[in-house]
Amino acid sequence: MEEMNSSRWVLESLMEPGAFGGKPEHWEEAMAALPAGLPPFLDPAALPGRRAAVGLPSARDSVLLEMAERVAKDPALLRYAWYLYWFMFPVPVRGVPWGAPSLEKRLGRQSGLFYELIALEFFPRLALWHRKAGYPESVTVETARQVALFDDNHMRGEGVPGVYPRQFVWLAVYFENPYVRLGRFEFALTTHYGANAWKRLRDGRVLALADDGLRVAEDGLCLPADAPAQEGWSTRLEEQEDGARGYPVDPAGHVIRKKVYLDAREWVPCLRKGDQVLDLHIPAGGGMGWEAVTASFAQALEFFARHHSDKPFQALVCRTWFLDGRLCQILPPGANILQFQRMVYLVPIPPDRGGLWFVFLRDTSNADPDTLPCDTALQKTLVEFLRTRGGWNGGAMFLLKEHMKSLREDVYREGFPALRADLGF
Fold it and tell me: Are 244 and 238 a contacting pair, CB within 8 Å?
């Protein structure tokens, strides 16, 4: 029995010896808490209710019950399932078990059902968290639908029900910070780690300066941190009491190779590293139309003012694949995603080699473009870009809280030419 409780035995039995670097965090603690009887997430009587709570159809009951029975009879699957459940859902929160393996070698096309089975525990844990925070039940119900959306992704990508392991472990993030779905989008209170920005006192115009030490290509986009020394150039950001000196970021998403000086008598910081911000997440499904965006932002402003007035945020921020400033070169001007880009301040980031996973539902970090699916117009467009232009960077953005209240396009771009003339860059 002692050997069967070891992480080595379990991972080798699952044909995934290298998962979690071979040393899953908190494994011994989890095994010490393994119950003698059936774990709660394998209770067949409770399964239909948990399934319904996350928005999955009743047609999932039979396959989930079969998976629950299989896990209960398999010592390795049982212990790994318990480890994930114990790590992610009971109090206290232990973080996120990044690196969960696919289990395809052991379970084949049913591997996603294994993760979906444990994901049913998301709702009761989320409901407890939300009740303590005083959130409306409607917010809990909407947020819990993420499991069903993950199932949709798996159906599109694999043709069978399930949840991808990389998306399953993401469910633990909902318990680290206030993180809820409000209309079209999800929002999480967090600490800003992106670009710093300043506001000019006389007219309210905003300018971001690139972080110190970025490697930048001639087109103003960021290079990988490990790019050869002879490629591109490096940014510098110097801040003193009398002002800041650095390289400006065009709100269309690229760095300009011309240093500027922002005098502290004329410019004040409006977004700094370490500030409280609202992190934006875009669940799968649904469009990015203007009405959906504005309604969701309005809900976020009201919700966080009511429930977290002690944590005022400075801005809305996001990092994702569709904030790459080059998207305007391959999509029509009227595309909703481009309208969204024009509404915010785009900031380039070092390439996220796997960022297009959400488009293709497979690892794209080292993929040959010719092997990627071309089932949608967007996939076809991006594959052609990758064939002819190389990698995709993705990008980041910010939208100051004051501008969330009265959304409009080009709020940062329309005054940028005047700033260039005034500051000489």
Answer: yes
